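Let us practice reading a record.
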Amino acid sequence: MTVNTLAPNHVDPAQFADALKTQGYGVLTPADVSAFVGCPLSALEELKADWDDLPLDNFLRDGGRYRRRRHSCFVVEQQNVTQVPHRAHYQPLEYNALHGGMLRMFEPVASRTVAQPVWSELLRAIARVCSEVKGARPWYVEAHQFRIGTSNGIGRPTPEGAHRDGVDFVAILLVARENVSGGESRIFEFNGRHGQRFTLIEPWTLIVLDDQKVIHESTPIQPTAEGGHRDTLVLTFRSEGFLEQPA
């Protein structure tokens, strides 16, 4: 059976900030990601194997065992990228009705991953675009490595449904897509009726979203062969510190 997928409308890297200002999101091709970050795609490929060593996410309230992840936090200020002491991930219930309101302590991103020069270059490049849109400032970044698997059937990239993250910007980098169907990206105006949907197929395609303007979700994935999975790197950028549990 042939399954048709919709391709995203890509933007030129020079127009990335304008796309975020006008439509609330922008998508770069892998080749443009390479130019945007200033590193060859082979440097990103050096990170790929690190997704094979993600611990199981034990906080899924739907009882699923389809998600593996690591999480670490950074501050990007101009050219400086600083990893902060390991901390729990927190979201208020208003942004995540399924998993909000609790502290979730995940295993940190492996030191080998963070030590790769392309890691810091990627964070700096996205931070520059964030600053183009909202002004130069320090950016508080939470990095999430995700693997959504299908060994037990359906895997859900966003079990909480369409949502915002409570930050300024969300970047989603497709790392790998193996033996799966589905996983359609859906983006909707937060205060409007218009939406877009498309499927990321090529590894190292990048979406950046203005979290104040749009809500987003990814549809479930299903296996087309054994070992089906979808790997992503999700980076959230917030200008007023990390989200904290109320005192």
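A brief commentary: The chain has one domain: 13-160+185-193+202-238.
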